[in-house]
Amino acid sequence: MKREIVSKLPKIELHCHLDGSVSVETLLKISKKTKLGLSEDTEQLRKLVTAPENCQNLKDYLTCFDVILSYLQTEEALEMAALDVIEQAARDGISYIELRFAPTQHLEDGLTLVQVVTAVLKGLNAGEVQYGVKSNALLCGMRHDEREKIEEVVQLAKDFQKKGIVAFDLAGDEAAYPPKDFQETLALANQLDIPLTLHAGECGCGKNVADSVTMGATRIGHGIALKDTPEYFELMREKNVLLEMCPTSNFQTKTVDSLADYPFRRFLDENIKVCINTDNRTVSATNLVEEYMKLSDWYQLTYEEMAQLNHYAVDGAFISEEEKAVLHQQLDEQYGKLNEKEIGH
Ligand SMILES: [Zn+2]
């Protein structure tokens, strides 16, 4: 595949963290505007918020976020951050994106949960107006938080349902806090009719993926560890689960050590649905075009397969059937045009 063509083709992204994706340039703008007095040296800051190629593990990778979060504690900062990620999405040729964030991580300077969510949604709406990229947001509960605090976020997702918040997720240290610890919380989300996508199988085991699906997740963040537990493949097919794979991030967090171990092709061959995402544009120093180019390098991914991955993403997106139909049609048209031109030769 060619980068300039991949850039222009319409794409859907479902797994992108607001904090991990806000650009260094915008962090600096935030610092100046809100007189935070934090680091104003671009390269120094970039170093602090970019994960090294060789993190020891997921926990290592997550430390970059502490620096970023110190910038994202005001309404203005959150709005600017959300708008910034939409601008990046537009550059990537994204037509629809689901951006996720953990509201409890933005309360240090006195914001309320409602103020946090409202500010992010304001930034997303501004992004749609300015860049024409449609978006919704997902709320993450942090695994290390107390149960009451996480359930407050579930309730918050309910309060903002149909106002831009479309699902709930569990993020953070999966190894220390496996999905089975959250049975009651997830039951509450199910009871409130809030769709679930859960981080699982990123550093833990395949059983975490199966447990998450059994507890109601229709999508899984990463799901890489599933590769070692083929006994759960049938469950994934039966429940029509979508795995949100994030190639660059998956290598950084040591989910796999070698390309031969990365289960992208294997999952597709097993008829397990996957889609491609950045996870964290800034922390992982990537963008969505780059992720597809990696797949092109590694697996000789074709435009046809890229179209299929995006159709899977649309199927799994937390939007109405009507909205899905519009996106499917856009993909058919744009990738179809390409087929006439490219594959004809
Ligand atoms: Zn993630």
Low-confidence stretches: none
| DSSP, total strands | 8
- Identify the CATH architecture: Alpha-Beta Barrel
The total count of helices amounts to 17
The main sheet orders its strands as 1-2-3-4
CATH topology: TIM Barrel
What composes the largest sheet? 4 strands, parallel
Q: What is the count of distinct domains?
A: 1
Q: Class by helix and strand content?
A: alpha/beta
Distance between the termini: 14 Å
Sheet-strand content, in percent, reads: 5-15%
Keywords:
single chain; 345 residues; TIM Barrel; 4-stranded parallel beta sheet; 17 helices; binds zinc ion
Word description of this protein:
This protein has helices spanning 3-8, 18-21, 24-33, 42-49, 58-62, 64-71, 75-91, 113-131, 147-159, 183-191, 206-214, 233-238, 247-252, 264-269, 288-299, 303-316, 321-343; strands spanning 11-17, 94-101, 134-142, 165-171, 196-200, 217-222, 242-245, 273-276. The longest helix has 23 residues, at 321-343. Helix content is 51%, strand content 14%. The two termini are 14 Å apart. It has one domain (3-343): Metal-dependent hydrolases (TIM Barrel, Alpha-Beta Barrel), CATH 3.20.20. Strand 5 (196-200), helix 11 (206-214) and strand 6 (217-222) form a beta-alpha-beta unit. The radius of gyration is 19 Å and the shape is globular. Helix 16 (303-316) packs antiparallel against helix 17 (321-343). The strands form 2 sheets. The protein has a 4-stranded parallel β-sheet with strand order 1-2-3-4. The protein has a 4-stranded parallel β-sheet with strand order 5-6-7-8. By secondary structure, it is an alpha/beta fold. Zinc ion (ZN) binds next to strand 1.
